[in-house]
Model the fold of this input.
Amino acid sequence: MKKECVSRQPEVGARALTQGVEIGDVGISKRNSTGANAFTLAEVLLTLAIIGVVAALTIPAVVTKVAKDQYVVGLKKAYNTLKAVEREAIQEHGPMENWLWSAGSGVLGPTAEFEKYFLPHFDVLKNCGVTEEKGCFSEEITRLNGDFEGGVDNTSFYRIITSDGMSWLYSAQGGGTPLEQKGIFVVDVNGLKGPNRMGRDIFWFFVFPSNLGIKPGGSYYDDGITPVPTDVVDAECNTTSGYGVSCSTKILAEGAMNY
Done:
């Protein structure tokens, strides 16, 4: 009898299914019949909502981090470019302290100064010079704290775009003593693209015709002797109140945009 009952159980189950009997009627769980538990609509919606909240919180931070890293790479490349230009210019014209500087000497104007010493050593894609021509540098620049810095004075800055897409400004500016700053380079590492913000994609460098040469903004004061204190640099790189001029030094020293 036991053997007969055992042998008939599969037959009963098969017959029940063919006759449209509910699976539950023969003691089989409908949820387990597929071998896996299914999610309800409410569970799926709740999971998607959680994923959405996490993404909203994390994606902006990730995007900002990636952008900052790209700006840092651009700054390092720009500084290497300037030092290469400096080396080649010194090889051609001798020590920088013996050059004819417009600042304090009146021998060369800003255009002639840049064209004579620096321009031949850049890989120039577009040259706007000191003219009204547009398209070499952003027309509107903001400070790191978000305040409007202003547009580029086309009569004071020599403007070029290099083959790597970077936008450059040069202006003769400084005092007449041998050690004082004589010129300013400003670079936008991603060209005309935004945010066009000092301390983000726009960085400053100063030219000292001494053993300093071209230095990142925030390294030395205009006298070419006094280093800028770290606390002053940090204040300049404050996104609430800083202008961003000195951030070149901070980034190159720390290897990251930590603000």
